[in-house]
Design goal:
This is Carbohydrate ABC transporter substrate-binding protein. Belongs to the bacterial solute-binding protein 1 family. Keywords: Signal, Transport. InterPro entries: Bact_solute-bd_prot1. Helices cover 45% and strands 14% of the residues. With 459 residues, the protein is α/β, with parallel strands linked by helices. It has two domains: 233 residues, Periplasmic binding protein-like II (D-Maltodextrin-Binding Protein, domain 2, 3-Layer(aba) Sandwich), CATH 3.40.190.10; 153 residues, Periplasmic binding protein-like II (D-Maltodextrin-Binding Protein, domain 2, 3-Layer(aba) Sandwich). The strands form four sheets. Strands 4, 5, 6, 9, 14 and 15 form a six-stranded mixed sheet that branches. A four-stranded mixed sheet has the order 11-12-10-13. Strands 1-2-3 form a three-stranded antiparallel sheet. Helix 3 links the parallel strand 4 and strand 5. Helix 2 runs antiparallel to helix 18. The protein is globular, with a radius of gyration of 21 Å.
Length: 459
């Protein structure tokens, strides 16, 4: 995960409160317990599902860089294989490391830049533009994007009014997953408010299971916790101000959010393995340890986005039956809806690279990966029925119904040094806070010092 030197925040994606999206998501999850035919057209192919027309690219070789691993990488490779099948091109997946901008910089310095990179933040797109790496999308890709995406999802891929990014993958990062058997044994119920979450956690703890699994070794999971609490408690306007560092991290609203977080992070026995154990637990393990061990797993709940399903799939737990989910409870007036995403950005302005961007903007590409699970597309023309289970189908419907009513991940908007580098900035400061949740003022001071240095605005 990685960020840029100056936040690029679009008004279309940020202008409205999260209440509408939260309501849609809550309704969709309460109810929870095919690609088109292909036809040949001479030198191009088209799909009935998205009717995207692609050029023949026999003899063309392309490379795509992304930080995805495991099942996520394997599933994306199937999307690339479909592109190969339709165009005749040969596409190589290049495994990248975080921060991806640093990875791309080394590739470009060595004269081997990938043709396309999947960038996980609006800030990373802007940084790629500032470094003259990114190329604007061509007319075909822009047309496909305009046809299939809401204005908000288009705008967060723009820099200075030009379209550079195709948000191929979206994430709903306002979900808490739970082990259904643990809840059943404990007599726990799904909470809708923060006080109810605390009550549910106590019920789970009293049954002999730690309530929460936290992947504290990956600092981004902790920023996501903070963002959900802050958005719901402080509200969308404050969220936008803090995201742009227009208010300081010493603001009373940050104190309130950290104090609220400490009610979970600082409660003895509530975090699997304690703080030390959580700080040695990477995100994938935080999920799998919640859904292995029968009715005595290491934890009853794990917070993170819809992509958790990929990791649940590595256990014997079944989404919707053994592994269930509820929206992040509201701390303030409304429940939070925090989104993230990964955008395809062209680094080599070639016919092949632009064709791949066009394909990734189409329902055809998204449908391939949607069928495989652990993935959500912001593409409004993907049929929700292609998702593999009712839980994910309803998430997809809620995402599209929300339109532009969401807030993008705050740390993904921040400069890389503050919001996206392991062992530095917000990631490190919140890891330290997980270790010592009583030090609210000290944590605020460290966050503000690191933010001011990274943003360079001295605010």
């Amino acid at each position: 995960m990685l960020r840029t030197s100056r936040t690029h925040r679009t008004r279309a994606a940020a202008r409205t409160a999260a209440a509408v999206a939260a309501g849609a998501l809550a309704l969709s999850l309460t109810a929870c317990g095919g690609g088109g035919d292909k036809k040949s057209d001479g030198g191009s192919t088209a799909s009935a599902g998205g009717t995207v027309t692609l050029p023949k690219l026999d003899g063309t070789t392309l490379s795509v860089a992304a930080v995805w691993t495991g099942a996520e990488q394997a599933n994306f490779k199937k999307v690339l294989a479909e592109f190969e099948k339709r165009t005749g091109a040969k596409v190589t997946f290049v495994p990248a490391q975080d921060p991806i901008i640093n990875f791309l910089g080394s590739k470009i310095a060595g004269g081997q830049p990938p043709d396309v990179a999947m960038l996980p933040q609006p800030g990373a797109i802007k940084q790629a533009v500032e470094k003259n790496w990114a190329k604007p999308l061509g007319a075909e890709a822009q047309a496909e994007l305009a046809k299939n995406y809401s204005q908000g999802w288009q705008d967060i891929g723009k820099v200075d009014g030009k379209q550079y990014g195709v948000y191929y993958k979206a994430a709903n990062k306002s979900l808490i997953w739970y082990n259904a058997k643990v809840f059943e044994n404990a007599g726990a119920s799904e909470p809708k408010t923060w006080p109810e979450l605390l009550s549910t956690a106590q019920t789970v703890y009293d049954s002999g299971v730690a309530p929460f699994s936290i992947g504290g070794a990956d600092g981004w999971t902790l920023t996501d916790w903070f963002e959900n609490v802050y958005l719901s408690q402080a509200g969308p306007e404050k969220y936008d101000q803090l995201a742009q560092h227009k208010i300081k991290w010493t603001d009373p609203s940050v104190k309130d959010a950290l104090t609220t977080l400490a009610q979970v992070w600082g409660k003895k026995g509530w975090v699997a393995g304690g703080a030390d154990g959580a700080l040695q637990t990477e995100f994938p393990a935080s999920v799998t340890q919640t859904f292995t061990g029968g009715d005595q797993p290491k934890a009853g709940m794990v917070y993170e986005g819809d992509f958790v399903q990929v990791n649940i799939g590595e256990t014997k737990a079944k989404v919707g039956t053994d592994a269930k989910v509820f929206p992040f409870p509201k701390v303030g007036a409304t429940a939070p809806v925090v989104s993230g995403g990964d955008a395809a950005v062209v680094l080599k302005d070639s016919k092949g690279a632009q064709a791949l961007a066009t394909f990734l903007a189409s329902p055809d590409a998204a449908t391939v990966q949607a069928k495989l699970g652990g993935y959500l597309s912001p593409n409004k023309n993907v049929d929700p029925s292609v998702y593999p289970n009712p839980v994910q189908q309803k998430m997809a419907k809620a995402l599209i119904a929300a339109g532009d009513d969401f807030r993008f991940d705050m740390s993904d908007q921040a400069p890389q040094a503050f919001g996206g580098t392991p062992g530095k900035g917000e990631w490190k400061d919140l890891q330290d806070f997980l270790k010592n949740p009583s030090d609210v003022a000290g944590t605020q001071a460290k966050l503000e010092k690191d933010a001011a240095a990274a943003y360079g605005n001295g605010s």
